[in-house]
Specification:
It is a single chain. The protein is α+β, with helices and mostly antiparallel strands. The chain has a single domain, classed as (Glycosyl)asparaginase (Glutamine Phosphoribosylpyrophosphate, subunit 1, domain 1). 28% of the residues lie in helices and 29% in strands. α5 crosses α7 and α6 crosses α7. The longest helix is centred in the last third of the chain and has 16 residues. The two termini are 17 Å apart. It binds asparagine. Asparagine binds next to β8. Keywords: Autocatalytic cleavage, Hydrolase, Protease.
Length: 264
């Protein structure tokens, strides 16, 4: 199957930091992960929020989509479900590196400042895809923002905020300040603009600008339309992203960067 895939990864130390192992810690020094996956053909969706002991929360989100009658499971219920279907329970997702960063960080607002107004943001991985039949899908996974309150759920697992996919328009995965993204339902807002005729880039830029003006939030999004138009846009200082379309790889980190390589 021919497939276009776009990925954003808004962290920088690829081998040091990840969404499960090495995710940012909450105020009590624990990992709590949020994740969503959505199928644009049927609007089937699975999400998990505040899960503590699952190394790959997006696999659990997918199981929620495929094996339950629900859209989202949280915390203890999500862990019980994981155990029941044989998804491995991880003992400890806290890394030494993240523990040190957490010890030196003082509060959630400082975390927000450091994540989204400097080059040190990390912790969210997202993907959107389009196949040759015009089916789109999205997935987003995150540890959130350092020093978040216990039980805080960000945008990532919330349908229409951290991600959305609909074959009638396209798929979006978002990153950035979760509380801002939630207030403007960023993923759905971007698709709304596309439904009104905007290109993927124009829709993402207009929506991110609106989020900046309306709630002073920074973020980024990767977008693919069901016709193959795509975008990677951000108002944070940087966002690592990559796309593959017709055997051409594009990637970038800083604003206006677009490195291109033919793969075959
Ligand atoms: N790095 C991120 O994208 C954080 C995520 N959006 C959250 O607020 O939970």
């Amino acid at each position: 199957m021919k497939c276009d895939i776009f990925v954003h990864v808004d962290f920088q130390n690829w081998n040091l930091s990840w969404v499960g192992h090495g995710a940012v810690l909450n105020i009590d020094g624990e990992v709590e992960l949020d994740s969503i996956i959505m199928d644009g053909e049927t609007l089937a969706t699975g999400a998990v929020a505040s899960v503590r002991n699952i190394a790959n929360p997006v696999s659990l989100a997918r199981a929620v989509m495929e094996k339950t009658d629900h859209v989202m499971l949280t915390d203890r219920g999500a862990s019980m479900f994981a155990e029941r279907i044989g998804i491995p329970i991880a003992d400890d997702l806290v890394t030494e590196l993240e523990r040190k960063d957490w010890e030196q960080s003082s509060s959630f607002p400082v975390g927000v400042e450091k994540f989204f107004n400097t080059q040190w943001g990390h912790d969210t991985v997202g993907a959107v895809a389009l196949d040759s039949l015009g089916n789109v899908a999205c997935a987003t996974s995150t540890g959130g923002i350092r020093n978040k309150m216990v039980g805080r759920v960000g945008d990532s697992p919330i349908i229409g905020s951290g991600g959305y996919a609909d074959n009638r328009s396209g798929a979006v995965s978002c990153t950035g300040h979760g509380e801002s993204i939630l207030k403007v339902t960023l993923a759905r807002l971007i698709l709304f603009h596309m439904e009104q005729g905007k290109s993927a880039t124009a829709a993402a830029e207009a929506s991110l600008q609106y989020m900046g003006e309306r709630v002073k939030g920074c973020g980024g999004a990767i977008v693919v339309s069901s016709t193959g138009d795509w975008a990677a846009s951000f108002t944070t200082p940087c966002m690592a992203w990559a796309s593959i379309k017709e055997d051409v790889l594009h990637c970038g980190l800083n604003p206006k960067e677009d490195f291109t390589e033919r793969l075959k």
